[in-house]
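Late entry, zinc ion complex.
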Amino acid sequence: MKLFPQTLLRWLVLCLLSCLAGLGMASDQDVTDATPDEETSAPERARRIPVITYHHHLPQDLKMAGRYRDGSVTNSVESFREQMEWLRQNGYSSLKLEEFEALIENRADPSMEKKVLITFDDGYLTTLKFCYPILKEYGFTAVVFLITGRQPALAESRFLPEKLQYIARAQMAPASDVFEWAAHTHNLHSMKLNPSRSDLLVADDGALAEDAALSLAQLGQTRHFCFPFGQYDEQVTERLTHLGFRYFYTTGKGWAQPQQGRKIMISRLNVSPRMTLAGFARLFRDDT
Ligand SMILES: [Zn+2]
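Prediction complete; structure with ligand written out below:
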């Protein structure tokens, strides 16, 4: 009850900002940050889940010295540690996929505990080499969406910071105490067939089924699928649903919304290399 006046005040501020936006007096940024989602009731907002996205990591000195200095998806290992520290200090625990499924489908009561689903796209070797030990130290788990066709069978003999290397198939089992593995296509994470459309969208039914089978042969059973480049349409989602996938990870920005049905579409929060720790913390504000 103590919070009520604050909540009321906040809504008044939000209403005022919405009015200003209507009059063209607030910037786009203000509107995006402040406008409440009118279709989401307060209890539903409480059930939304932050799903954060990472790609590639390098220690700051290696990052600044090399070709990924300005890379838009290469975060520093130091910032990753700071962010995991922030999550721990602020009482967050990470979700396993089974828990996430139950929460997103409203099959489990959301506890008061703060939850986050940590995801890594592509399955770079740096995810294993640098992020795995930090996650383990902090007691967090994460999901890695693997492009299985790029995985070497055995571990690379040498770490080459100037190259994009991938987690080897032989490295998966020993890291499964921290990582769960999910699909990011076997060999359709490119734009070979059309310069602006992912090969996933261009593949015919046979090619799609074959790719999914190859991917699942390496991953084991998973119903979690991340769209390459964030590109998807109704048709490909439907076809992937027929192949057994159910949880679809997009690059749509926002917290994952509870939903039911054959296809569960999941928005995520990208952690950009330019993000400060304060910016990272803002991702977890309940009006994000
Ligand atoms: Zn990707």
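The mean pLDDT is 86. Will revisit in the morning.
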